[in-house]
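Q: For a teaching session next week I want to show students how multiple molecules come together into a single three-dimensional assembly. I've collected the sequence lines for a complex. Could you give me the predicted structure tokens for the whole thing so I can convert them for display?
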Amino acid sequence: MTATGTSRLTTADTQKGNMTVQSDSTVTLIRPPRGWQAINLRDLWLYRELVYFLTWRDVKVRYKQAVLGIGWAIIQPIVTMVVFTFIFNQFLDVKPDAGIPDAWYPIFAFAGLLPWQFFQGALQRASTSLVSNSNLLTKVYFPRLIIPSSAVAAGLVDFGFSFLIMIGLMIYFGVPFTLQMLWLPLFLLMALLTALAVGLWLSALNVQYRDVQHMVPFLLTIWMYVSPVVYPIDVINAGGFWKAVYALNPMVGVIQGFRWVLFGTNPPGWMFAISMTMVLLLLVSGLYYFRRMERTFADLI
Amino acid sequence: MSDIAIRVNGLGKRYRIGSLHTSNYHTLRDSLVSLFQPREKQPNGHIWALRNISFDVKQGQVLGVVGRNGAGKSTLLKLLSRVTEPTEGEAEIRGRVGSLLEVGTGFHPELTGRENIYLNGAILGMKRAEIERKFDEIVEFAEVEKFIETPVKRYSSGMYLRLAFAVAAHLEPEILVVDEVLAVGDAEFQRKCLGKMGDVAREGRTVLFVSHNMSAVLRLTDETVVIDKGGLIMRAPTAEAVDFYLSRGFTQEGQRAWEADEVPLSAAPFLPLAVRVLNSQGKVVNTIRSVEENTVEIEYSLSAPVTGLRVGIYLMSTRGEYVFTSFDTDDVAEFERMTVRPAGRYISRCTLPANLLNEGRFVIGVNASSYRVKRYFQDEQALTFTVDAAGAPGMHWPEARLGPVRPRLNWQIEAIEA
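A: Of course. Below is the structure for the complete assembly, covering every listed component.
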């Protein structure tokens, strides 16, 4: 859409004499878009603070409007963990990963819920983000990528609180703290990129097809069952081919990564490599699709 | 040449019909269904909102942009501020563009005044350090010091607008694009905003100023372009351009009729049909006599019942000053009688009393709205007409009288010492 270059600095004197129009005078060329667009990194960089402000707005507004405020970030995963433990572990006899005690099922489930709930919330917000910010899209220019990005980033605050509970649970269950935990940010990043990648696709599609926002809750329900949130990955008791298909779900890699970091079970292997590749594919294609649709957002929304 | 701040060359924007005024998202089902239907070639399926626009703006120039609703002004501004992209042509812009397409964009009702200043500033492209530097100035300009920690949902609409304008006005872009921000707020605040805009211009920044407020355009700009039906039809010194714009053939013998396709779909269920000026004999005329009673009527139809509707006129001088605003349900009893106006075809008619207007040309604007609910339709330059003051008070002195009104006042001369 825009090609940019730098021209000489321009200043203009004012009547007051002491103020000048300070400028890193850049030339913006506005012309019809053609074909696939590269990501405008310069603009993204210029508007980096906006990501922070929009994220901050989302977080602030969410906690301001809720009576329980931060409480929600704590209650949700705990209640879910308790219910999962009763239903799956007590009644259905689902065991945690091989090599960790059966009594650890609650923390095993929590280690799956931690990235899963982050992913779920981030994807939900991201997919409706463009439509719910339509007043911005039709009025002001900024790189549109910022909107789904900050919707995803807003989930990090909830994740932070859940993580504190995780620490508490580890102490309670006597799970040892190891250096492996330093890998955790990597898997969190992977969950974040997965949410962003899918969020880019869905948010752009949602501008054109409002069906998408009805589809997301359904998609997430199905997605949770095909991710090892309540059960260990060993349950997929099939040949290499089916395991590979299963690993196409990036959340398989993410959740297993979290469990490896905390319990040392099932270290990342070839299945993880598949999950990782899938994230990158989704992300690159999502970015390109988003870029392509971006120019019509203001006209369609 | 580098003293050109904006160079627009053959710019055009085409919309698919239907996407111009309404949201145009589809359902997946529509798309699936259309897959199985033969592609219809629709040569008229597109509409050029703007076409073949070329002009330059020099660094530091303040250029006015005038045109009727739907003429393509907003599309032009959206293109220049990069909200949407052109279909053809190109524009070259030197420097940071700040746009005030609508004040308060991105304000969140739950956040406090302070928080919204930061958020809105960031949305408009300000750096955090810049906002911090100007924070006090913004708060002072908006006159909201006491409420800065209060969520803006508790602000009066005046405070809200003042704060929103204040943030936008303190943005320091090299090029400022302003659309109709002055239509808001009370007279005193409007003056303040105009003053601020004047400062911006004097500081050597380039300003594109779009407004229906002709006196503001006259005051702030030296040169003005007139846009009509998506094309640039005139560029001239402002006084000349404004005169051309206001007197241009919108008036057909005292009547302005609307074609259905001239009315934005957002006006529904209200559909304006015509506004006309009639003299005391009931004839549609272009020139009325000030000493007679005259009539203004608005004909329109409603495709559905509307609650709380008021249809009315603005009267403006050609200098852009408002003379008065009046609605058909200004009378409380009438308003209560017409709580819900059923679907149908209507004429709202009012009398312009004799001895009201001074000689000269006047502009009638039309507004149909439900207070605090929706503005269905507005055209601030629907019709112009001329007033002939023959026989009016004081005509025995052949001099121009100041002011838009020329009432016959009941003077008494009392000798208290003879």
